[in-house]
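Researcher: Structure prediction, please.
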Amino acid sequence: MADKPIMAKATAVWLVDNTTITFKQIGDFVGMHELEIQGIADGDVAVGVKGFDPVANNQLTQEEIDKAEANPLHKLKLKFNPAAVGEEKRRGPRYTPLSKRQDRPASIYWLVKFHPELSDGQVAKLVGTTKPTIQAIRERTHWNIQNITPIDPVALGLCKQSELDAAVQKANAKRAKEGTAMTDDERRKLVSTEQSLGMAPEPKMPSAIAGLEAFTLSGNNDDEEDERDDSAFKDADSFFNLPDNDDDGDED
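Model: Predicted structure follows.
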């Protein structure tokens, strides 16, 4: 960490052994709980750890230590931390704990499936992976693609919801600037997840009548059929096709 000394526990050991600074002050400076510092003083914590002199290693000044000893409320200020040099410029994929690395393909699959607007670089930054892996999953050429189930990276703890929302909004803003058309579903992603979940669901047609939306139930066709039927059968003779009366007279 940029605001903490290197070899924090060894530095705490040195400060406990060589100063009268309070446990709280030491704990705040090295990033440990004051009870841990008390454990160092009691010999229960950091047993065998050799003290690391922060003054000799250019992390504290003697003047700063004197101020802390004189005032229990004074907070020690780090002078210089070699390990923090260039920390803010460091680039590369996010570090993922070993216990969660097996979940990364599932998260990548989820992101490329439900957020195709995200670039490979954004996906790599969110879940801490490499572009070749993302490309293999996107193109379904990954060696284990048949066994990968898409899982939300937020649910797996690989990234924060705010980070995912920010990446999605940035991707959609870029597409809008380039003039790329967005679907209604993609527009809903422009808002945060909390707002999206609060939206009213879009109306959907029941599956029982799906495909019948092109048909109408107007009565015009029925009226035309009734008129056609009435004109075809004006009288009983035409309906039963009865013989003329002249034929009956000839037979008599």
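Model: The CA atoms of residues 1 and 84 lie 7 Å apart.
Researcher: Thanks, that helps.
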